[in-house]
Design brief:
The protein is mainly α. About 50% of the residues lie in helices and about 5% in strands. The protein has helices at about 5-15, 55-60, 80-100, 115-120, 130-160, 170, 200-215, 225-240, 245-255; strands spanning about 25-30, 35-40, 180, 185-190, 190-195, 240-245. The strands form three sheets. It has a two-stranded antiparallel sheet with strand order 1-2. The structure holds zinc ion (ZN). Zinc ion (ZN) binds near residues 184 and 246.
Length: about 260
């Protein structure tokens, strides 16, 4: 059975009601063997014949500025009258959303927009079950928003980690190796080498030399201290210093 047929089967199952609120979803096994393929709507790919996300897009009332209006097709409802009612409700839902977003809000008129229930009844939901169906639509929308936020947070964490920041309370990795930044002394998992010869590079090396020079000078007799400072500064000028991403950022910007 191909992806098209499975997507269509998931579409039908969603329509006749598997029991998502009990977290029981049908799965498909090719020939009764192999890996089980879940038949949840949101996991199905769009195909030329079947777009599993279409019902949810019909009910989208957030981000209408970015999302195109979904036309209600002629046979959407069980009768001509119901289809007409669904079309009117869809237009009303869209208008409510446009008004809310023009005001900078996201919620048209309450958590479950009134037109949503009318739309669901129009496309064939039983009146008695329409409220539960509307709640399912709202829950699916909230879940999508939550996933998007989670994905953004993970992306940000990967970015912070790649920059070498050591934030065990935020990113974990408390036991990972770190080294102190030559300029500020912060522990980082990755340091960047900054060399002399540019305005920002020299400014950073000056800070690093002051810091390392003070530390080295405190360990020798007074009369040798200025010489020790000179040697530290000369080493930095020659070899550069290793700095954390925050301290190295001005030099990186300069190099751009
Ligand atoms: Zn630093």
């Amino acid at each position: 059975m191909g992806a098209d047929a499975l997507a269509e089967l998931a579409y039908v199952l969603a329509g006749v009601g598997c029991r998502p609120w009990q977290r029981r979803h049908a799965t498909w096994r090719q020939g009764g063997r192999g890996a089980a393929r879940p038949l949840q709507l949101r996991l199905q790919p769009s195909t030329a014949k079947c777009d599993p996300m279409r019902p949810l897009r019909h009910c989208a009332w957030q981000g209408v500025g970015r999302v195109e209006r979904q036309a209600v097709s002629a046979g959407a409802g069980p009768s001509h009258e119901r289809t007409q009612a669904a079309t009117r409700a869809a237009a009303e839902l869209r208008e409510l959303a446009e008004v809310a977003e023009a005001d900078g809000g996201m919620v048209p008129d309450g958590v479950v927009p009134s037109a949503l229930v009318a739309f669901l009844v129009g496309v064939g939901e039983r009146a008695g079950a329409a409220r539960a169906a509307a709640a399912t639509v709202v829950a699916a929308t909230c879940q999508a928003v939550q996933w998007a936020s989670l994905a953004r947070a993970r992306e940000m964490a990967a970015l912070l980690e790649a920059m070498g920041l050591h934030l065990p309370e935020l990113l974990g990795g408390a036991g990972e190796l770190t080294a102190p930044c030559a300029a500020c002394g912060c522990n980082a998992r990755q340091l960047f080498r900054v060399r002399s010869g540019t305005a920002e590079g020299d400014a950073l090396l000056q800070t690093a030399s002051k810091r390392a020079g003070d530390a080295a000078a405190s360990r020798v007799p007074l009369k040798c201290q200025s010489r020790v400072r000179e040697v530290v500064a000369a080493a930095h000028t020659r070899y550069g210093a290793y700095a954390c991403v925050a301290c190295a950022a001005p030099r990186m910007a300069e190099a751009q």
